[in-house]
Structure formats: C-alpha cells, structure tokens
Amino acid sequence: MVRRTVRRSLLAASCASFALIAASAPAQIGVPTAENPPESAIDAQTPDTAPEPSEEILITGSRIARQDYAANSPIVSLSQDALENTGRVTVESALTQLPQFSGAFGQANGGSTSTGLNGGQAYASLRGLGSKRTLLLLDGRRIQPSNPDGSVDLNIIPDALIENIEVITGGASATYGSDATAGVVNFRLRRNFKGLELNGQTGVSDYGDGNSYRLTGTIGGAFDEGRGRAVLSVDYTKRERALQSARDYYTARQTTPGLATIPQGTVLFGANLPTLASVNGVFSGYGVPALTGNAAGRYTGQIGFNTDQTLFSTVGVPVLNFRDPQTDEAYIVNSGTNSQQVNFGFNGSSLQSDLSRYNVFGKIDYDVTESIKAFVQFSYTSYSSLGITNPTLASNVYGLTVPVTNPFIPAAFRTILASRPTPNGAFTFYKALNILGPRYQTYDYDVYQITTGLSGKIGIRDWTWDLYGSVSKAKFVNAQTGGASASATARLLNSPTGGTELCAGGFNPFGNLTPSQACIDYISRRTVNSNELKQRTVEGNIQGGFVNLPAGEVRFAVGADYRFNGYGFSPDAALAQPDGTSDILGYSVLRPAGGSIDTGEAYAELLVPLLHDTPLIQQLDLDLGYRYSRYNTVGGVHTYKADASWTVFEGLRLRGGYNRAIRAPSVGELFAPVSTGSVAIGTASATTTNGDPCDTRSSYRRGTAAAQVRSLCLAQGIPTTIIDSYQLGTAQVFALTGGNPELEEETADTYSVGGVIQSPFDSAMLKNMSLSVDAYQIKIRDAVGPLSIAQAFQFCFNSGGNNPSYSATNYYCSLITRSTASGVPVNPLQPLLNLGTFQVRGIDVQFDWRFPLNSLGFNGDAGQIALNSAVSYTDSFKIQALPGAPTYDYAGSIGTGVESVAGTAHPRWKSITSLTYSLGGASLGMRWRYISSMKASARVVSPTSTTRGVDKYNVFDLNARFEAGETTEFRLGATNLFNKKPPQVGDIEGTFDAQNYDVMGRYFFIGITKRF
User: What is the model's pLDDT at position 891?
Assistant: First the structure.
C-alpha cells in the first residue's frame, strides 16, 4: 500500500447487518407493501423441482449463481408498487422513508450559495454514512457517478423499468469492490418485457404548489423467432417548486439575531472606532435617546442608512431611528440586554426544487448460439434543476471597502468618520445587493452509459462465463446569475464621481436605493462552471459447481475487472482570476482541476455446504470471498468476507458474517478544486454552544472560562478595541474545502448476525406470518471527509475538553483565521482528511402477516388483510473527529452527521408500517411512518446546552388501487394525510430537516397504467 506523507483521520461509519431470512424463501426483508407477501407465502409458491442452470439466480451480495434465492447477507426489497405509493415522481423519497436509510441530499435541495458540484442531485445514504459509501448498481453492474466524490445520482435511474430495489446493509467490497462500505443498493430491471405500457402520474400539495407530472412509455418484445428480445423505455418527469412562504410553519422573520446584512447597508468600524460624542451629536438631532459606548468613549455598534439618507444604529446597541418600513429583508430583533439589530430575511426559498428530466433506456438481448448470448444496453438522462437563494450578501470576507472620498456619503456620517483615530481611513461596508435580485443557479446534466457483453456455457459441469464492457460520461454545467462583480463594485465605490462616468447616475450604496438599470447591469455577472466525469469498465467472470460433498455442491466464482474514472473541472474565468482571486462576491476562487484513477481487481468466492440433515442442522453453508484491488493512487488493498447460513429446521434460518470493506478516495476527493460555501454555525447565546465563541453573547464569553476565551480571541486577531463588544452579526461563515491528493483509503469492518422465523401454524389466519431480527455493526477507520468548521469553532474553545489549555496553536484553532480589523472569520478551513472513526450499531426488525378474511368467518372471497412493519433501532452512532480525539455517540440526536449530505438525524427508532386490504384487483392501504424524538447534537458534546431537539413524528399515508379490466390500473392517494407539521430543528424558527421530515404537507396524487 502506498503510504501518504500527510495523514489525518476523520469520522467513519460502521454499519453491519445481522440478518436472518426464512429457509428456502427469498432472501429479502419485505418493505411494507401489499404486493410484497410474507416469506412463508412465497415459500408456498416455490416449485418442488429445481430450475435449470440457465434459470439460476444471481443474488445481490454474491457472485455465485444458485438455485434458490437465499442470501447470506440481509437484504431489504422495495417493489415498484411501493415506489408509486410514495406519490413522488423520483425514487429518493421511497428510499429515504426506509428505516435503514438516513435522509440525504435530494428534492429538498432548493437552492445554494456555493459553487458545489451536486446541485439538483439526489442520493441514497445507508445508515447515515453517506452516498459515497453506498454503492449503487443497475442489474448488478456499476453506474456512472454523477459527483466527483463517487456518489451516483438517483435521478439517472430508469424508474419506469424498475422491478424491485434490493438493499444490502453492510460491507460488500469483497463482492463488488470499493465504495460498498455501508452497503449496496441494486436496482433490478424488468426482464423479457412484452407489449406496450403507458404510465402517467400527477400530484399537487395541499398548498397548491409542488406539482409533479410523469409520463412513461415502455415497449418490448421478441424478434428473430424468439432468439432476440428488445425493450425501449422513455420517461419524462417534471417537478415544480414548492415554496416555504406558502406554509405557516416557515417564516422569513426570526425572533433571534441572524444575518445583519441588509439592503440599507451598514458600516463596521473595526478597530477604528468613532467617538461616542460624534454619534450622539448626530442622533440627538433625530430626537432619540443617547447611545452608550466603551470605557474609552468610543461607539462600538454599527451605523446603517435609511433610504432618506438619515442614519440608524444597529448590532450590539439599541436600534434607534430606523425609518424604513420593516420588511422580510430588514426587521428589528432583540439581540441581548439593551441590544438589538436589524435582521435580514428571504421569503423566496424553496422547500422542493424544480426538476425537468428526460430518460431513455434500451436493451437488446440475443442468443448468438445455444450456448452464447450477447446484449447491448444504453441509457441516457438529461435533466435540469433550478436553485434559488437570497441576493448576494456583501459581508464578512466579502464585505466592501469604501473610501472617505465617496461623494454619496451622507454629511451626517462624514462627521462621525472624522472622529475616528484614523479619520481618512476607508471603512468596511456590508450590504445586501437586492438590486440584483435573488441568485439563480441552474444545474444541467447529461449522462449516458453504454454497456455490451457476452455470456455463455463453458461445457464443464454447469460452469458459465460472462464478459462485459461499459463506457459512460456525466457532463454537468452550472450557471449562476445574480452575482456581483467585486471589481466593478469597487470601481463604482472608489470613483470620485460615484461612478457616473461608468453608468448612468452612478451607484449610491447608502440606503435601500435602486440605481439605474445601467449600473445594475454594470455590477451584475453571470458565471458558468462545467464538470465532466468519465468511467470505463471491463469485467469478466466464471462461476459454477466445483465438487460434490455429502452436504451438497461446492460452488465458486472467480473474476477480474479494470475500471477507469476520470474527472475534469473548468471554472468560469471570473472565479479563476490570473492573480489567484475571485471577482464574484460570495464565491471564492476556483481553479481548473482534474485527475484520474485506474483500478485493477481480481476476486474469488467459494460457497461450501458443511452439513446437511443432521440434528438441529437442516443445512449449514459457508460463503468465503476475497478481492485484491490495485489503485494507481493508494496502491494495493485487500478485502474479504466470511458468511454463514444455518437452516435449523424448516421455518427457522440463522445467518451472519464478517466483511472487511474499503473505499478508495474518489477522483473528486483527490483532485477537486478549492471552493467555498456558506456553513451555518448558529447564533451565539448564553445557553448554547452555537455561533462564534468570541461573540460577547456566547456561552463561552459568559462561562467560567470567560477570561481564557477572551485571551484566545485576542490571540486569533480580534482587535483589543472591540474585544468586549464584538458580535459576529451572522449565523454563517464561508468555509473553504477542496481535494487532497494525500488521502488514503477508508477501511471498514462490518459484522452481521440474525434470523427469521416463519409461522409453525397451519391455520389460514396464522400460517402466512414471519418475523425477522437482524443486528449490524459497521466500524469505519480513516474515513475521508471534511472536518466540520462548526465543530472546529467549538472544539477550539474547549468544547468536550478538546483544547484545555486554550492554546491558539491547537489544531482546531489553526483552521480559523480572522480579520485583524473586524475580527470576523475569514474563509475558515474545512480540510478534507482521513479523519478518525465512525461506528454504527443497531437492530432491524421486520414483521409480515397476511391472512384471508374468510379465516375469520366471512363467507366466500372476502379479500385479505396484509400487515407489514419494518423497524430499525440505532444503538450507537459514534464519531471521532481525529485520531486520539474524544469519541461522541450521536445516536438519538439530530444536528451532526459524518458529512452534510449524509443526513444529520440519528433517531433511536424509525419505522414504517402498512395495513392493506385487497379484494381481487383492488386494494386500500394505510401507511404509518414514525421517527422517535431526538435531542440536539450540541448536547452530546456539551450536556449543559439548551439547544432544542425534535419531538417524535407520526405521519400517515393513504393509497388505493383498482383495476379496470385486465390492462388498466388506476392508483391514487394522499401522503401526510393529516397535514402533520415537521418539528423545528434547533432554536431558529422556520428551520426544518427537509430530508427526514415531510415539509411539503399533505400531498395528493393520481396515476394510471395502461398495457397493450
């Protein structure tokens, strides 16, 4: 293995599954749907005769074909009907609702102020360990990644052809290679499709927004006297925005301090403070009370500008003389004792992003000879999504600098400027540039994949071979509008005429004034970034029976593959200036980046029957696997597995095992450009660990170690003149992150054990009943991820005992740089590192029961009842940020995840239960979704924190289906039937977890399927 010179350990996740599935039954834990019968019911339908070798099944989690569908790893299965019953037109909603998944990046991604490479995408995050640790497959083969970190976008899956989705929770690298550390999601497509099928669905929220439309057409059949089979599917999906402002539980106006960058503009004086006398001299003319300052007689607040060019006070002092009407963009809140500020809010946010998607999928299978088959398969997806967020905020590191020679400076303010120790010094100016309108980001994707291969029989026993190759590419274009040019704005502010020679009327930034359209156009910029990912794969396999033992046939599989992943990023020239800076306010510098990874692998798997028909052992099998992978980046790595399956007697099956899994750093993690994004750190308060610890309102400045905190703040660069009045005035910072070519591979150890028991009763009411219990543990070491800047602030100031000496050279403190003029954090670092350890442990329970109503005494065919419940209990979710650092258990908490897009909710209990009545071709079902209460993750690190958690959550869905003849089916339903509001997350009003909770409210849908 290639060892790197720089090595740090991040958080890693451990997730192992202990599963037990019924003997001779499909190895899948059914998700609650009427269409997914209990295993005993399936077992009753299993033919007595074994299938021919050509009919052998390749199960998810193994390379060995076998004559039953019993797997040695716990598998969860999700049917096409279950997908449709969610009422959504994209697949991530159905996956997120499963107890095994954490809410991740998806349709709730309504807008971003970062230049990230995942806008509009949707991911699957098993066990909350992140999409890059969840390997997605299409019929057992790798899919083209859509993100440089290796994540696959669920939007490129051909939904119309999904037969079912199989999920393995636990490591599977010995079977599939890198990335399968948390588990595998395998999308199985329908085979041998015949005829024409048309499908349509539409839906709308109870608030009249969030409309969705989907139209699909699939045609298939045989040709050349049955030697060939072809299928073609076309899918169009449209999803419209849903607005936060339409729901009373969202609010654009908070009652607590937040962003203080407003359209009127405000001045930060930093260390160059004006005299209190000069400020009160101006404000006495407004007829308002006198303001107070520091012991040196200096004014420590900020000064804002009314539209009529008078002044008002704000931030850390009472807001006096604010004359403009209070709006969502500028309203007064209390920020402490004798302290207020004018907050900024934005009422145009989305809670569901729009999506317009076209997907085409085709496949041709052909029997070349009786023993050789060929296939070619292609898929193409083109979709676009729009993100909308607040106007550009020129603040913090993007604050403006205004010279005292600017002609638009109000006369009253000039007298205040003249009282400063350096009267002719330029001043820092914050302003929300609402004159440019909201910022729009369009995300346009074009993804294709072509796969072709051959398979056949070798002629030795039942040995078979297959060989396939795949080429694919994902092209991403990200355009941003509403941005502001830093250089153009600076020219206007520094012009002795106020910019009248540059645009009509010049630019007066003082007050909520609208300049001429010529000046708006002069400032405004549109930028375009592009990203391209390529993948090439060649794989060959041989499998079959090896030798007969007394307990059965030993079977094997061997194979090898080669995989190439390439990456190239081209930023807009405005974001990659020749002098190494960015010209767009709010967006940091981006640089062209690229790289590639070459991987060669070889594997072997052996299925050994150990015992058969002995006391208490009907069948005992051992499944062993080994894979060697060679990367041009991290060198050689080894993965292996040992799984056991024990059928005690008919109706009771036990299984368990161990898997060593790895995940090599992706091309993006190695080579991604440094970029910035706004990261929420919260607002400082006396009872929480939120916000900037140096803020005078924080629990750090008011706690028992206040003197040590103050000294550390001074050491970081906060000026002495403002240290005792410093307030950040925002709830976010702009953090930098990027690729790291020194990364090493992650290593995961996953354990699983469990069992399933089927009903021993013969009565019609009780015989179709099964219960499974599965335990899992996953431990990931050297996990690759960004070190959370929010935690870096807290740990630097000794939260959890991470800096007991309050040393400025502490590692966490080294990530924070401050302006020596204003004290605000300047692009703090979120480095991508091999961090510490993630460890996840829990239990899954599945209960299925189906019975006919005539078993209760009803006459004739009265229909049947199906009860299905899937429950997951999380025993621990441990994160260690760095080797040697404290380990925190976040099970039962919300707010901290292994990474931002992996999901931050870790409930102790999560379940989904359905009760369905069906009669003939009609069914009526009710589904119950439950998430237990959680405490705020801040209380895990600091038990005295008062940050609020979330209450338990119960939501009910209603769905119905009925057939009109043999070729037409209607379906309709309502999700969140009782319009349950989501729980507030944290202390800021209107903050919700849209990935785990239903923020849309009640949603109605109707669909029809027609077959010809």
Answer: 97
Q: Centre a 10 Å sphere on the Cβ of residue 614 and count the other Cβ atoms it contains.
A: 11
Alpha-carbon 693 to chain mean position: 28
pLDDT of amino acid 148: 85
Task: Supply the pLDDT for residue 66.
Answer: 66
d(C-alpha 7, C-alpha 438), whole Å = 41
Q: Which residues pair with 848 in a beta bridge?
A: 770, 868
Helix (H, G, I), strand (E, B) or coil at 160: helix
873 token code pair = 């209990």
Q: Which of the residues in the chain have pLDDT under 70? A: 1-60, 66-74, 104-118
Q: Taking the model in full, what pTM does it have?
A: 0.86
Q: Reduce the DSSP state of residue 518 to 3 states and report it.
A: helix
**Residue 74, pLDDT score:** 64
One-letter identity of residue 575: L
Q: How far is CA 425 from the centre of its chain?
A: 45
Q: What would the two tokens of residue 865 be?
A: 């009842």
CB 283 within 8 A of CB 291: yes
Read off the amino acid at residue 1.
M
| Each residue's pLDDT tens digit, 883-938 | 888 899 999 999 999 887 788 999 999 999 999 999 988 999 999 999 999 999 99
> With contact defined as beta carbons under 8 Å apart, do 205 and 1003 qualify?
yes
Residue 617 vs residues 19, 48, 548, 606, 611: alpha-carbon distances, Å = 18, 21, 19, 20, 7
> In this predicted structure, what is the pLDDT of residue 495?
97
560 vs 777: CA distance, rounded Å: 29
Helices (H) and strands (E) in the chain, counts: 13, 50
| Residue 290 one-letter amino acid | A
Nearby residues of 671 by Cβ (< 8 Å), 6 or more positions away: 148, 567, 593, 594, 595, 739, 741
Rounded-to-integer distance, Cα 584 and Cα 525, Å: 8
H or E stretch covering 426 = none
pLDDT tens, 719-755? 998 999 898 877 788 888 888 888 999 999 999 999 9
Distance CA 912, CA 542 (A): 40
Q: What is the pLDDT of residue 991?
A: 85
Nearest CA-CA partner of 444 in 480, 471, 470, 472: 480
Distance CA 14, CA 16 (A): 7
- What is the reported pLDDT for 69? 47
User: Amino acid letter at 884?
Assistant: G
Please give the distance of CA 655 from its chain centroid, rounded to a whole number: 32
Distances in whole angstroms, Cα of residue 881 to Cα of each of 44, 129, 301, 405: 50, 14, 37, 49
* CB of 695 closer than 8 Å to CB of 688: no
Residue 493 has a CB neighbour count (10 Å cut-off) of 20
Give the chain's largest Cα–Cα span: 102
**Bridge partners for 619 per DSSP:** 612, 647
pLDDT recorded at residue 221: 95
Per DSSP bridges, beta strands 75-79 and 29-30 are parallel
* pLDDT value, residue 430: 96
Q: Which H or E run contains 97?
A: helix 92-97
User: What pLDDT is attached to residue 1012?
Assistant: 93
Residue type, 560: A
How would you classify the pairing of strands 400-402 and 393-394? unpaired
Q: What region does 889 belong to: left with phi over 0, alpha with psi -120 to 50, or beta?
A: beta
Dig out the tokens for 727 from the structure: 């307030």
DSSP string spanning 208-241? S---EEEEEEEEEEEETTTTEEEEEEEEEEEE--
Can you tell me which residue has the tokens 């590192």? 833
Residues 645 and 655: their CA atoms lie apart, in Å, by 4
Q: Does residue 939 sit in helix, strand or coil?
A: helix
What are the residue ranges of helices labelled H in 352-456?
A: 411-417
Cβ-based neighbour number of residue 248 at 10 Å: 8
Q: Token pair 């499908």 is at which residue?
A: 199
